[in-house]
């Protein structure tokens, strides 16, 4: 097997074994269906996607807290997050969106 094919095969196996990558990819698609409306513009105090300074204290709270706030809703000092952002996405889909948003905002 030549080295190019070997490298490609190795990379493919790594991607297939990395479940979080799939979750982030799905999270990106789900983000674009609903969450972007607030998180692209900062409506109601929503931290903008990619705003590392605004996301840092939220990320420091841990992913479980972020999941809870995104799924159940949250009233904070900066604004209001409705449950699931007002969407009908499943809890697992919301977690995928959170993972995507965190990855884009670190």
Brief digest:
This protein is mainly α. The protein is 65% helix and 4% strand.
**Could you report the average pLDDT, rounded to the nearest whole number?**
83
Structural class: mainly alpha
CATH superfamily: Cytochrome c-like domain
Distance between the termini: 39 Å
Looking at the structure, what is the overall shape?
Answer: globular
| Share in helix | 55-70%
The structural domain count equals: 1
Strand content: under 5%
Total count of strands: 2
Q: Might you state the CATH topology name?
A: Cytochrome Bc1 Complex, Chain D, domain 2
Low-confidence stretches: 2-19
Description of the molecule:
This protein is mainly alpha-helical and 106 residues long. The protein has one domain: Cytochrome Bc1 Complex, Chain D, domain 2 (Orthogonal Bundle), CATH 1.10.760. It contains five helices and two strands; from the N terminus they run H-H-H-H-E-E-H. A hairpin with a 4-residue loop joins strand 1 and strand 2. Helix 2 packs across helix 5 and helix 4 crosses helix 5. The longest helix is centred in the N-terminal third of the chain and has 21 residues.
Layout of SSEs?
Elements: H1 3-17, H2 19-39, H3 52-60, H4 63-72, E1 74-75, E2 80-81, H5 91-104
Helix pairs in contact: 2-5, 4-5
Keywords:
106 residues; mainly alpha; Cytochrome Bc1 Complex, Chain D, domain 2; two-stranded antiparallel ribbon; 5 helices; disordered N terminus
């Amino acid at each position: 097997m030549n080295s190019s094919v070997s490298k490609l095969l190795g990379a493919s196996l790594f991607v297939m074994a990395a479940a979080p990558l799939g979750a982030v990819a799905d999270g990106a698609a789900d983000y674009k269906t609903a969450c972007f409306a607030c998180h692209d513009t900062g409506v109601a105090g929503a931290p903008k996607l990619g705003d590392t300074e605004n996301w840092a204290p939220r990320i420091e709270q841990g992913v479980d807290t972020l999941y809870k706030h995104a799924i159940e809703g949250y009233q904070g000092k900066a604004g209001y997050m409705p449950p699931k952002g007002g969407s009908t996405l499943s809890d697992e889909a919301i977690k995928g969106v959170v993972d995507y948003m965190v990855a884009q905002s670190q």
